[in-house]
Description:
Blueprint: H1 10-24, H2 30-42, E1 50-58, E2 61-68, E3 75-77, H3 81-89, E4 93-95, E5 113-120, E6 126-134, H4 142-156
Antiparallel strand pairs: 1-2, 1-6, 2-3, 4-5, 5-6
The chain binds methionine sulfoxide.
Amino acid sequence: MEPEQSSQSGDHYLSLKARVRALTDGETDAISLMATVACEVHHSDQRFDWTGFYRVVSPGLLKIRPYQGGHGCLVIPFDKGVCGACASTQKVQLVPDVDAFPGHIACASSTRSELVLPVFDASRSLIAVFDIDSDQPDAFGDGDAAALSEILELVFGGLS
Ligand code: SME
């Protein structure tokens, strides 16, 4: 599968959103949905070198769920890493330089920048975080965060 031209342009995300909508329509199994979203997002853009989910499995604890790329660490407490910061604040973490982020967890030494987004269900409860790593510095912008948040809301925002 050839990645589309690397871009933060709306066109790239419009086609990605349409593809994800078609593939996930009517599905309610969270693991199946995570696997599909991780695959389609990962292969949509050459900036994305690790793409995956960490599920809230108990208060204050994340565990790895479907992902694409090299191995990811299995367990992340809310007080650790970029993923933990996203889970504890429930806010997007847009990190242009991971070496400048206190407590960043390096699953790969090649990672230079990172984007982590909160994932909410229909009751607006945090169910997971969605993590994208790039080997390129400062790879992500507000456009990526907004478009990917829309896709996550489309897929998981109706789950009970
Ligand atoms: N970098 C993340 C850990 C997950 S690995 O990147 C897949 C963090 O600091 O939370």
